[in-house]
Structure formats: C-alpha cells, structure tokens
Amino acid sequence: MQSSRRLARAPPPRTLFTRLYSSSSSLLPANGAGDGAGSSRVGGVAVKQVTRGNLAEALEELRARVRDAAFVGLDLEMSGVTSAPWRDTFELDRADVRYLKLRDSAQRFAALQLGVCPFRWDPAKSAFVAHPHNFFIFPRKELPDDISSHEFLCQTTSIDFLAKYQFDFNTCFHEGISYLSRAQEEEALQKLNVLYHDGIASPNTSEEEDVPLRSTADLLFTERMKIKFKEWRDVIISNPRMDNHWLECNKFSTHQFQTVFFKMHPAILLNGFTSHQLKLIQQVLRKDFKDLMYISTFGEDNTSEKRVVYTDDSNDSVSLMKDLQEDLLRSREARVKSAVGIRHVIDLLASERKLIVGHSCFLDIAQVYSKFIGPLPSTVKEFALGIHKILPYIADTRHLMSASDSVQYLMRQKSKSLSSVFSLLCPAFHSTVAEPSTLSPVRIEVEADETMLSCFASGAKHEAGYDAFMTGCVFAQLCDHLDVKFEHLPPRDNLAMNNKLQKYINLLSPSFNSGTSLDLSTGMERPDTGYKRRYPTVLYDNVVLIWGYQSELRPRDIKDCICKVFGPASVTTIFSIDSTAVLVQFSKQESVNDFMDLKAALEKTDSAISVLHPLSTILEGGKTRAANYDTYRDICGSSVSKYFFADQAEAVCSSSKSLLKCENIDAADTPGVILNESILDETIPTSEKHAGGTKNVSKKEDDSEISCQDILDALQDGKALFDKRTRST
Amino acid sequence: MAAARAAAKQVTKRNFPEALQELAAHLKECDYVAVAALKTGAPTGWRRALPVDTAETAYLKAKLAAESFQPLHIAVCPFRFDATSHSTVVAYPYNFHLFPRDELQLGMPSYSFSCQTSYFSSMARDGFDFNMCIYDGISYLSRVQESLARQKIFIPHLRQPSPSPSTTVADSVFTTRIKSRIQHWRKGYAEPSKTADGSLVNSLRKLILGGESYGSRPSMSIDVCSDRQVQLVLETINRVSDDLVPLVVPDKAGMSRAVRVIFTSSEEDKNLLLMDIQKLEDEHSVKFRGFREVIDLLSSSQKPIISYNCLNDLTMIHTKFIGPLPPNMHEFTCSLRMVFSSVVDVGHLWREIGPLRNAKNIQAALSYLQRQYFVPMEIEIPQQDGTNSVTKGGENVLRITKLFAKLSMLLKISPKHQSQSGEQHHTVEDFCNIFYPGCMAGESDDVDCTKEPDITRTVSTDSVIFLWGFRKTSAKELRYLLTRLHHVFSNDFELRLLDKTCSVLIFRSSDTPMELLREISSESPSLNNFFSEGLKAAGFDVYWKVCRLGLWDSDLAEALEAVSSEQATSALSGHGTSEIYWNSSLMLDIKEYLEC
C-alpha cells in the first residue's frame, strides 16, 4: 500500500494509472497473426517500425495514408514526466502554475517515440482500416555548427517503466531519427544566408597567420613541397591538353598526392598529412604559387577533403570560388533539410489538417510544440493559440469519455488508463476478455504492407505506435457512443468536420486532476462539470507559501502553530508540496499580511517572546521563508531544477530579481513592522508581572517567571490590539 | 593495442554476487586498482572546467557534473606486477553496468539524471548496449541513502534475547499466557496426533490455533506492543523448545509489531531455516547497497586507486556512493580521504615526466611513451569466461592500467609493501591525491601530440577581468574594439572567449584590472564609450560567487549580470585572492587543502 500511495503522488496521470493497474489487468495483447480483423479475436497488431534507415519511404507512404484518413491517432513516449516530485500537478494548482509545471516537463524531457496511426473509413468493408506507425526519436546533433547543448533529462522511474515494457533503447539511441523544430530550422537557414552573403562561407580562409618553421623537419618538408608543386605545375603548363589518360599515367600520383580533376581543373588530393603539415602546405602555396589554390571541402561521409587546385588565372579562380560557395550553400541547405527529420511527420499532419486524437494528450501536445515547433510560450493562452494554428483539430479521448453518459456508466469504478479503456471498449483485440461483442460495434482492421514485413513488429503496450492505435480504436468506439455514425462517412472525409463532434474537439485537460479543460481555439480554460474536486476551491490571494523550516516539522504541526496564533478557524487548508514546503490557505486575506508581518517581527526581535511564541516552532533554525502565491508561480516557472522544493526556492530567490519580491513580503518595512514591534514591547510588561526563572529569556526579564500560556494570552491581546490598529489606519 | 583489445568481465545484476566475490579475492592479491567511469554526459559551455578556474571553482563545476550526470558503466581493474617479470602486469578487469533503479520504491538513488546526446551517440558508435544497461544494470544506494532507507524499510529479522532485568507481575502474566499459547500450538506439530485426521480437521486446527506457514514450515504470529514484550517472547520461546525460531516483524515505523514463531522439525531443518533467513537478509543488503558493495570493497582494501580525471570521477563516486558533496573542496577532500586514502591521477603522474607534460589524453601519453621510451609492458588477463567482451569503458581502464604501469617503471614507483630500502624508490604516496581538473573538452581519441611551448604560468585572480555585453564577435575583433574604448586596454592582456556571451581578460599585473573596476563602479566618464557599447565587466569575485550560488542554468553573462547587479553596493570588498594556472591543465594539490 505504501508503494502505491507513493506512486499515486509521483508519476503523472497516464503513467500513474497504467502502473497502478497494469498488475491487476493481465491484458497484454497476445502475439498473433499480422493483420487482426476487428471481428475476430486476434491480439497481435502489426506496427510499422520507423528508424533513420527507412524514414524517407515511410514518410511517403504515411502522407498518402494520412490524406485518406478520417482521423489520426497520436502518442508519444517520453524520457520522463516530472523533473522533481514537487513539479507534479496538484489539484489545487492555479492554471498558470499548472501550465508552468507541464511546460517544464515538456522542455526538459526527450521524446523517444512518436506513434502515428491513420484510420481510414472503408465503406465497402464498413470498417476502419488502421496503419499504426512507430517512429524512434533521438535528438542527435545533426548540424555541425549547432552549438546549443543537446541535453535532456531522464526520470529514472519512467526509464525503468519503459524497460519493463521492453522498450528498445538500443534502436532508439542507435537508430532514432533526429529533428529540428521549425524555429531551429529557420535559425539555421538564416545563419546560412548570413554566411553566404558575408562570404565567410568561403572554403578557403584567406588571412592565415604565418606558421613559424620551428624545426629542421619543417624546413625540409616545406622545401620538398615547393619542389613537388613546382614540378606538377610545370607539367600542367607545358601540357595544356589533359585528359583522363594523363590522370592515370601521371608520375606524381602517390598515396599522399593523388592527381584528380576538381570541377574541370587539374588538382591534387592530399592524403595523410598532419594538420601541422597541411598548414605548412598552405603557407607554401600562399607564398610561392599564386595559381594554385588550397581548397578544403566536405565529402560524402562528412570527412574533409583537401585539394590543391590549379587555376588558369585570377578570373578562373574567382569563378571557381563562387562555384564552390554555391555548392557549399546547397549542401548545407540540404543538410538542414535532412536534419528536420521526424518533424516532417508533424508538418505532414499539420498540412493535412486532419483530426488528431490523443489520450490524456496535453503533455504529448506540449512535447510536440516544444520539440517540433519552438520554445514553449510563457502563458497557456499563447500555447493554445499557437498549437491551434498548426494542428487545428485535436480530440482527447479522455475528455470524450467524460462527455458521454453511457461511457461514464460503463467506466464507473474503472481505471481511465488507455489500456483499460481499450480492453473495455475494444474487447475484440483482447483474446483474454470475453465481453459481449455488442460493446464493440465499430469494426477496425489493421493493414500491414505485405512486402515490407521486416520492419513490422507486433505492437505492445506503451509502444507509441501501438498506443496511438489503441487511442484511435477507443476514439472510434466513443464516437459510436456519442451517436456519430460512420455508415455514410465518405472515404477521405475528415472527421473533424462532423457536427456531432464539434463540441468535443479542441478541449484538453491539462492534467488528470486539474478538473478543467483548455479550449485550444480560444486559449480559455474552464472547469469540467463532471469532475469531483477533493479540495475546496482555492483563493490564491489567501495563500502563503512556507519553506525552509526544520525537517521534522509536519504540515499538521505547522497548521497547529498557526491556529494557535490566528485562531482555530484561521487556516482553511494546508497542503504539503513536498517534505520541505507547504502552502497554507488562510480563511481571511488579511491574515496573509498579518502572518508575514508577525514573522518578520519575530525574526527581528531577540526576546523571550520570539523564543516562546507559538510561531517560533516554524521559524526555528532561522531559515524559514514565506512568500505569496505569485512567488510560488515564479519558482515553478524557473529553469532551475532541484529535487527539494526548499532548495529550488532558495536557488530561485538567490539568483533572480524575485529575491526582492520575497524580501518585500517578508520584511515589510512599512508601518506593519513598527506596529508589531510596539506590540511586542507592550506584551513584555504583561509577562513581567509573573516572576520566575525561564532559562531562555533576554536580559530584561531574567528573574521573571513566564508561563507559556501567559505569553500566549499576551500575544493574543497584542494581536487583537494590532488588528484594531491596522483596521483604524 | 593488444592489451586494450583484451576482454573484461561484464557484470550485470544477474551475475553481480559471484563477480563481487571474485573481485574481493582479486583485490586482495593486487597492488593497485584502476577505476574508470562512463557517464551520460559532461557539462558544456562555461560550466566545464576552464583555464580561469581556481581549485575551488573547478571543484564546484565537478560537483555540478557529478550531481547531474549518471554513470552507466564503471570499470574496475585490480592489477599487480608479475612477481617474476617486471614487464608484465596481471590485471583483472571488470565492467559493471549500472542503472539507478528504484529497487526499494523510495525515490532513491536518483530521481532523474541528465543525458547528453553527443555522449549517447558516441557510446552507440562504440557498441554500448543500452538495453543491457537499463534492463539489467546494477542499482545502488549511497551510504547516506542506505541509512535513510534503513529508517524506512524494515524486514523481519532474528534477534538475540538480551538478558532482561527483573520481571514485574504484568510481565510474568504475559509470559505465562504466551508460553501456554506457544506450547499448545507446538504440540499440534511436535506430537503428531494419534488419530489420522482428515485434511478438513487439519485445516480447522490450523484455523483455531492461529497457525500460518513460513515457507513450508508451520508458524504463528504473536502480536507485541513494546520492545519489552519482544524480549519476553524471545525468552519464552527459548525456554519452550529448541526447535522454534523466532523472527521479529517490524511495522512501517520500525517498531516491533509481532514475533513470528517458526516450527522446525529437526536440528538440520533449523539450520536450513537459519541459512534461508540469512540468505534473505543478504539479498536485502544487495538491494540496499547494490554496486556500492564494490566501492566499499575498494575502500576497505586500502589499495591505491589509479584513475584519470580524478576530480570528475571521484566527485561522482562520492555523490553517488558515499553521500552528497560538501559545499567546498576542503570538506570534500577530507571526506574523500576517509573512503580512499590514496588516489593517483595518471594525468599528474605523466606530468612528472617533462616531455609528456603536454599530452592531452591517455592515448597521446601512451603513444608518446611508445615512440620515445623503451618500456616493454605486457598486460596479462588471466580470467577467461564467456561473458567477456570489449567496451569503451573497459578499454579505458586497461589503458589507465598500462599507462600507470609504464609510468611507474619510469618513475621507479614501487608498491607499498615491496619498497626495498637501499635503492632510491618512490612510493605511490608521493604522487597521490593530487588532482587535475580536466579542462580538455571531451575525450577525443586524437593522438596528435602537438608540441606547443610550455606557457603555463600562475596568474593571480586579481588580474582577471570578466567582460560581457558585446555582440557576436570573434576574440580578435573584440580585442580591437577594446583598445579603442579605454586606455587600460592599451596594456598588454590576453583575451579568451569563455562562451558566446562572455570573455575573460588576463592582465600582466593586478593594478590595471583594479583600476578598471574602480572606474566602472564610480561610473567614471572616461568609460562612456565603454558603457555605451553596452559592455560590462567584473572581477573574479563575481565569477566565484556565480559558481558558489550555482547559477549554472544561464549563459555566463546573464549569471554575472545577476550577481554583479546585486553586489553593486559591496563591490570591491576584498575577497582573498587565489591563484589560477592560466593556460595549462590546472593542478590542485589536495595536501595543500588539508593543511589549511
């Protein structure tokens, strides 16, 4: 139980549910024949596996499939979901905070697999025909001048989870397809253009510094080269008509000097020289041979080739240079284009404007945005509108499920994970489940390309391709429950245009516990009607964030301390972010400032009051910090990543200008503090009336006995007084 | 290289226990242990160790690297010089595959880790088996994590009854009740009933007697509510019969919840049971410690650790297997010494040989030795079984072994226990615990040993200025720009770009930078051109603070900006100056740190 409770907090919706229920449901599809017909109970589903090697052909095929499709299932497998336990989305997170948390996840983790499954309606068979594709992704550095660091985070539990489902990491890291986002591609092309126009792209850097000839070996080498090049040039000049025959019988061809033609010019291909020797050669050419050019180019397999080329005159050399530059630009452009890689799939989906179907797909969509479009925007609204422009129709089966009453009835008491919904709605694919076949009225067939069987594998749970297929199947059944009829659906028609579906599409739940859905077309988030909240609605203005207290303190203790000071009903909720920080919601908004002021005052004074005050339990250690909800948002939005929230908060506040913000709230240097000090002063005489010998008191009251209760009373008085005063001001 | 091609034993969680035993035996008979780790990445940009780093900032950077990246593979190779021929080294290389799996469901050892695609790509090129590593890698907990885990997870265990003080009436009542219960229960098994009962009666009896079974053996649980009661139950059981084995069952908070009494049918059966329990406990320890057993073995063997890029590897070992890294170098070295008393960096060793000083990596050093010196050295690897294969990490550890062997011949280092008196011999202690923070980017296999003049010099941190705010430009252009901006830049200085946003200027003396910083802080009008270009500058103290605060997530310029704007008021407050070894691979001497 302990472990499942821990899980319930740690991994996000999808992983969470599948993990909790994967053990109870032994519903892994049985490996069977390639093409499973919807009606027969065949478990195996042929999923096309796409890696670097077969991307180009797979793309061509996919393009045609998507064009014919009624809708497309989509799924991603990622290297992790949350970068720290406190970055889990909580039910009581404000929408902007939740988005920042999801944005952090989408940015930090890598997408390892992309599953795309077009579903075509075949009126003849009156069934859907699915073509599941599974793309392996690995964000390799493809462009040589790309200096951005390609770093991604792995969440240990996620990786281990994938390993449990036999995820093939070798294929992924060896053969995965890389990508450039639209923003990265644009930047790369722009850089090329700048290079081209500035002429820096010239393959021959002109202003070389002289290499001092340091040793006799250098001197001898230089002399030898001089003689060699001179001889070669003399042969060319004396022998103006050269042909291939010349190439073969040329006596200069050795292993190191290979005579070749380069763009119709006689040339020598240099082999096996050290970089120092190459520098010396360049120097020789620069000094003694105006008509010989040193040209370094990149060959097929990205190895650099160095040549010495003979040019007739300076015009010839200029035109050769220009030619070379254009070549270079073209080859670099081609390289950028090929580096776009897996993003072609997303571009394809975007240009076909088909209905995209995912299951709990907010994070998947955010990943798509961050990896293939550009950096995620800072607000959820910009994100929604941004993605809406590119993928105009997105449906979330999770949302559809909550929309259909009959499905909700079916799903009562059941897990909402993809695999369990799939086994419920599409029992045909589960040989083990004997549900009445009426539950699966929409027939689905999987079509595999017979000729290319080698790259097909039988799909398994948590492989993106198979998950995309399952999502699509679930979607088809849900549509049936929502009374969307396919019988009259013309082939190639986009399901996104269906009237009955209109009100369900483009609505995504940011997380399983958000209780809201985001309308992608407007960027507005609104509460879901069906969602049962575990916590009352939060008034964010009444919330104080506290961290840095002693580690043995439990949230309950903190609540008790605060209640002692502000009254038993003062705290509405206390929510622990992780073991190092809590969010406290006061019932009254004033209490927030009162708490901050009191904290600041207690920290400033060094009297018995500050030691024995009930709040001192929280303040003990002197590192306790408090801030308002906006600071919490800033901390969640920061790029810093620490395991504990307290460390994160410290790092964020010490590094950025939000330091000022925290301080502002902490040390209110406004009348509040002065008032508080006076309160403390006033309370001391009250306590002095009682004699006694508490040890930890300050110089003033060495011989006065103070019982805790007295001080408490005094403070309550003081507090009341303070309240009165602040109200009157 | 024949030696490097030789195979190392591949260890995963499947064969870990056997390999551990073998390793322990090999460690005992060896003189040194070479260690090399293969990680998921290394810091890039200004976060890697730079020539401007002092020992302290280099440590902070190594700390960052150790904390964010994950070792996937650690090669350990105990070796010794062959007793008969000194040109033969007998080595036992092991490749341990690691994965920080959360075996105990406690969120340990590591919640997440960073990976660099370039590292993964090159590992893939070298044929690294990621599936083997992730599916079957050995997990671990650091010492600190283990003690945390032990507070959270408890398993039933044997406990010896301690002699109890006087008994109270309540105690004796409790004891009597328990005793009769146990005896009654035991009778059911010890004295087989005369009548042949049916299975129904048997199971009914089981139900009534509250019997359970422990494996195939009958057992019963006695609930207890205090440690005192545990003692009483244990004593009672001892007194009842020898064929009963008590197991203390703790609850989630670690308090004893019940005592489980297990009935054994004979003396042999009892021994068997005790062995089973012991085995279970051992398995649990493996879950707790995992690969760390290897580190503990290395530590307790007291053999000198031979490594390359020690600062990086040992900070990593410390944070993954010992405990969190302390905030500064001094505490780190103290803490590390408690675990490994002597660590030798081959990088330091080869710098003892003059011409080798500029070798950029192990490969270069080895090939230089090959060409210039005659040091025959064969590596003999006696162990042979089917699991051996070559991997990059394994290759590295053998290279380190070979290089160390050759160097120790040249430098006349002899293992501790063999040091002859008469002759002039060094001991390995003379070279240990001196770390070079590797400031070379990445581990290239470039063997090109270019001869650059040795321009290592010591520069005071006072003569260093960090400059940022310039537009994209080359070092040369920037230099030209600066000379036109202010007269201090007419002095001789060196300029290097640290990342695309920030450059560092090294002056000959500390006066010029001081003057510049003073003028900047007083916003002197002579600097108008400087300011209008948007240029900013700060001294080393700001950089140090950036490292201390760990502002690693941004460009250097951004980080310096954040700190210097905050520090504006307290600028020029004299921090102690320290020294950097400019333009060289820097050297830190741990001994120096321990004395201060």
TrEMBL record, chain A:
Organism per entry: Brachypodium distachyon (Purple false brome)
Lineage: Eukaryota, Viridiplantae, Streptophyta, Embryophyta, Tracheophyta
InterPro entries assigned to the protein according to its UniProt record, in alphabetical order: CAF1_poly(A)_ribonucleases, RNase_CAF1, RNaseH-like_sf, RNaseH_sf
Cofactors demanded by this protein: a divalent metal cation
Renumbered residue ranges of the record's region Disordered: 685-704
Protein name per UniProt: Uncharacterized protein
Entry's family note: Belongs to the CAF1 family.
SUPFAM superfamilies: Ribonuclease H-like (SSF53098)
GO molecular function: 3'-5'-RNA exonuclease activity; RNA binding
Gene, per the UniProt record: LOC100828356
Pfam families for the chain: CAF1
From TrEMBL, chain B:
InterPro entries named among the record's database cross-references: CAF1_poly(A)_ribonucleases, RNase_CAF1, RNaseH-like_sf, RNaseH_sf
GO molecular function, one term: 3'-5'-RNA exonuclease activity
Coiled-coil annotated residue ranges, if any: none
Cofactor: a divalent metal cation
Record GO biological process: plant organ morphogenesis
Family from the record: Belongs to the CAF1 family.
Name of the protein in its database record: Uncharacterized protein
Gene: LOC100841345
